[in-house]
Queue: 2 jobs
Job 1
Amino acid sequence: MPISIEIFNPANGDLVGTVPDCDADAVGRLVATARESFEKKTWRGLAPSQRERILWKIGELLLEHRDELARLISQETGKTLREAAGADVAPAADCFRYYAGWVRKLYGETIPVDGPYLNYTLREPVGVVGAIVPWNFPLQTAAWKVAPALACGCSVVLKPSELTPLSALRFAGICAAAGLPEGVLVVATGYGETAGEALSLHEDVDKISFTGSVETARKLLKDSAVSNLKRLSLELGGKSPNIVFPDADFDAAVRGALWGIFGNKGEMCTAGSRLLLHEEIHDRFLAELAAKALKLRLGDPLDPHTQMGPQISARQMDRILHYIALGKREGARLICGGERDTEGAKAHGYFIKPTIFANVTPEMRIAREEIFGPVLCVMRFREEEEAIRIANGTTYGLASAVWTNDLKRAHRMAAEIKAGSVWVNTYNAFDSGSPFGGYKQSGYGRDLGSYALEQYTNVKSVWVAL
Ligand code: NAD
């Protein structure tokens, strides 16, 4: 029998639940279940309109259970209830309704080939998909993979983070209640090195759709190479530049910078962790931003007045504190935060004060490595070219933002920045219909929109001699 994993609430250390750590045998049984449902066509054999209705229903049920799911996610991750409901449950529900609409629109082409042939293409499901997801937006990232995979007719083994398995299990229960046939979506709880590795090495998994760190992505690539060459799509980390020009709407840009880094307590792959300020506005902007950061209310994530919860785990908190110490050693100027918040009941949780470093240079490690916490690195620039050079001077390329009222400059910057998303005069805008993914070591393949369908289908060319 696999050993159990205990899930603790990072705000107060309370035990929230336990789940099994699936070993290779347990994962093998789950893959076999998913394979059987795929081969027996229990899902892909249903009428498309029926599959469409079931996916839509999953979206509806997720919204019906929004408060319950948000509470569970908040207890697992430490994010506020508002963030859990608005940025995890709501987009997950929307994602299912969006992909419900694709079920009856997935078709091939007839191609005008030379010779006496009819040639046409079929888009077929890839088969059994392993969806390996992280803990920071547990339901949203699961939906980004499960919804399009199901729309394409695949069966899915979902491997949630070892820190957030409870919401994944509840999610699978909701999918079943909506009418998804048994075995089409199964959940392999467990650690990365047990359940995750068993899935990525499995010979009968056709594809892994992954969201997580670069380090794990390298292992998945090796696992694929030494097993069945299963295909991979990778959504990885980021060190996203948030660039403010002097002609920007100042207040909007300050708000964008604040929530770009302190939203979800900085545990966001798209966090605007490098703030590039034009020298004309640098000092005023920094003062305003720091004043707002100091006022952010940290506390119990279930309290509706709380704006920032604790980091997800002691490990994550220690990692962030380590980077803060490094920033000080590297010579960056600490503007605010820079330590744990242990006031009152917060002493029982993993709270870190919103932290801003100024005088950061592109060579510093705090400017190059993903911290994945509430730590902002502020840099100064003078010329547009200099901003582009700093923005692109990283191994990552996930997201970015530009704040300016100069239309031409906005489009020039959007074209020059090497990142999968560029936001102009906004931050963290998402829609189920718009593709999301990375350049460079932020990964490849796209979630969301029509682009995600490529991940879960094979194209077959059929030749008929006439
Ligand atoms: P992680 O890579 O440690 O874990 C992600 C998932 O992979 C978890 O389910 C984990 O159990 C599993 N895993 C770990 N080792 C494995 C192995 N050897 N084989 C198979 N599976 C394994 O990442 P994390 O700490 O959970 O999440 C934080 C990272 O995720 C950050 O780098 C962040 O930027 C990234 N992230 C990216 C996006 C995106 O869309 N680009 C979104 C959210 C998070």
Job 2
Amino acid sequence: MKRVALFPGSFDPFTKGHEDIVLRGLNLFDEIIISIGYNSAKSNRYFEVTLMVEKIRATFAHYPSIKVETYAELTAEFAKKHNANYLLRGLRNTTDFEYENSIAQINRKLYADLESVFLITSPEFAWINSSIIREVHKYKGDVSQFLPYSL
Ligand code: ADP
């Protein structure tokens, strides 16, 4: 059976840290669906979701097994619709762990056959953080070195 994983997140913006998790995930899964959680009615995104979809698609243009989608529902529901039995997530530190631990437990209560798979961030990307990138960009700082595409 094809192993399909969802890589869910807000990706505001998608960073080199996210790219690293996706590329390493390809060693484990046949297909990875990068899924941007997005609710048009109450979006307070900094980077437009359409721009981010375009940039991520361009980043992985040569990888047919990587897809990019947006969704506005329970992550687990969206995973089921795409026949994804795995949720791929990155772990940078203990703060990520505490948060991810409860989400993963709840997802398994809701969907027993949905496994969360965690990859420990590569050290060179562990400090990359989307909210700090937004802050730097807002004040016209150069964020290009943190992103796998140019803005
Ligand atoms: P969320 O809003 O769900 O936290 P993010 O877009 O911030 O979504 O992150 C999506 C996933 O990527 C999460 O599992 C997060 O821990 C992971 N992640 C975030 N930044 C990095 C990074 N620099 N390196 C590796 N993984 C990361």
